[in-house]
Amino acid sequence: MSTTATSLGAINLVIIPCSDQDRSIAFYVESLGFEKRTDIAFGDGKYRWVEVYPPSGTTGIALAPPPGEVTEPRETGISLTSTNADAAHAELRSRGVDVDAEVSRMGDPVPPMFWFRDPDGHSLMVVEVP
User: Fold this and answer.
1) DSSP class of residue 104?
2) Hey, what domains does the chain have and what are their CATH numbers?
């Protein structure tokens, strides 16, 4: 393995396929409180590139139409942080987000956490951090 630095930097975006970009934008912006930072047409207007970010985040989520049809929901591997998992869980539930029934508590050293699903059924995790 090489010990020299590469030209790779930070993770910039995670791409989530979505069947309806407007519905997904509404979910991430209105239900989760993300910011829409990019929404541009390309490919002679046939396609649309949309990026949403947590308000204090530097890594965003691109809400992209899939190369084919979205057939199965997937675990995105995306983990969001909260200083209070219980409050985040209650807030998302009150906004109609499909959250787990309760916050998972496995005991130290595992922090409290829960999963939620976006409109296409893709799952994301919220983990409590100090």
Assistant:
1) B
2) 13-128 (3.10.180.10)
